[in-house]
Write a structure and sequence with these properties.
Elements lengths: L3 H16 L3 H4 L3 H6 L2 H10 L4 E5 L7 H16 L4 E5 L4 H13 L4 E4 L4 H13 L3 E5 L10 E5 L1 H16 L6 E6 L5 H19 L4 E7 L5 H15 L5 E4 L2 H13 L14 H8 L6 E3 L2 H17 L10 E4 L4 E7 L2 E3 L6 H4 L5 H4 L4 H7 L3
Parallel strand pairs: 1-2, 1-3, 3-4, 4-5, 5-11, 6-7, 6-8
Antiparallel strand pairs: 9-12, 10-11
Helix pairs in contact: 1-4, 5-13, 6-7, 8-9, 10-11
This protein binds beta-D-glucopyranose.
Length: about 375
Amino acid sequence: MHSPISRRALAIGMALCVLAFAVAACGSDDNNSSSGSSSTSSGAAATKAQKVGVLLPDTKSSVRWESFDRPLLEAAFKSAGVPVTIENAQGDKSTQQQQAEQLITNGAKVLLLVNLDSGSGAAIESNAQSRGVKVIDYDRLTLKGSASYYVSFDNVAVGKLQGQGLVDCLGNSGTPSIAELNGSPTDNNATLFKQGYDSVLKPLYDAGKAKKVADQSVPDWDNQQALTIFEQMLQKTNNKIDGVLAANDGLGNSAISALKARKLKQIPVTGQDATPQGIQNILSGDQCMTVYKAVKKEADAASKLAIALATGKQPEAGLVNGKTNDTAKDVPSVLLKPEAITKDNIKVVFDDGFLKKEDVCTGKYASMCTEAGL
Ligand code: BGC
C-alpha cells in the first residue's frame, strides 16, 4: 500500500484534480492513483484541461461577445483556477452544435450557452444532458430547453430603461413619430426588451401623445440589414421620424448612419451594451442613451454556477435570485440589474472598468471626452 508520504502526495494530487474538475482524468485512472505522484495527476489534469466550455453566438450582432464576454469569462474562470475553452459559432447554428459536441468529447462537464435560437439551443442541451453534461443558459434563455441555470439581466427592465430613455430624450415636443428597430425575432431577449419598451411607449401611443410610425425586427440583429430596414422606414415616412427605439448600440448605429446619409438632423436614438461606438455616438449627440449591463458580474455569476455544477455543490446563498419560465418550466436564475447611461452619467462605464478611455476618446472624440468631464 501507500507510504504516508505518497498518501499525502496522492491527497494533494486528488485535491488538484478536483480543483481542476479533472475528476475523470485522475480518480478513475488507476495508473495515476497507484503511482501516487501528484505531478502525474496534476499533469494529466493540465493536459485534459478543457472542463468548462463556452459557446458564444457570433461577432456581428454585438461587439460585446468578443470584446467583453470572452475576456471577462476567461478572467473569471482563470481566477477560479478552472480551465475553460471558449468558442464562437459566427452566427451558424450547425457550427454551434458541432462546437458543443467537440467540447463534450474533449471532456467538458459544464457548458455555458448563448443560443442562436431556442430550437438549436434546446437540441444542444438535450444532447449534453444525455451525456451527463450540465448547461447554463448564458444571457439568452433557451425556451423549452434543459439548462440547469439561466444567468442574465432583467431584460424587461433593460427595455423599460430604453423606452423611458427615449421618452426623456424626446422631451415635451408635440406628438413625436417613433420608429422601433427591434432585435432578432429568434432571440428571447429581443422579445423581453420589446415587452419592456412597449410597456412605456404603448400607453403614449394609445393616448395620442406619440405616434408609432414603424416597428420592425432585425433578423439575427444584423447591422447591415438594420441599415436597409431603417432606410426603408425613412423612405416610407418621408423622413418624418423623431425618435428611434433601437434595441442595441449596433442597430442604433445603423439608424444613425442612415440619418447621416440623408443629411438629416440628429434625433434621439437609443441603444444597449455601452459599446465604445455607442458611447462615442452619445458623446457626439448622435445617440441619446444606452443601457449598460455589467458583463463582469454576469461572467462572475456564470463561473460560480459552473463551478457549483461541476463539483455537485449548491451555489453560494443569494446568488440565484429568481426563476424564469422557459414556457415549459421554471429555470433557477441570476438576474442582474441594468443601468441607463446618458451623457450625464457616462463616467459610470469608465469608473466601473468596463471601457477604457483610450478605446473611446480617440481622434475627434478626444475633445468631446474632455468636454464631458472624462
Ligand atoms: C444580448 C444583447 C446583445 C444582443 C445581440 C442579446 O441577447 O442580451 O446584449 O446586444 O443579443 O447580440
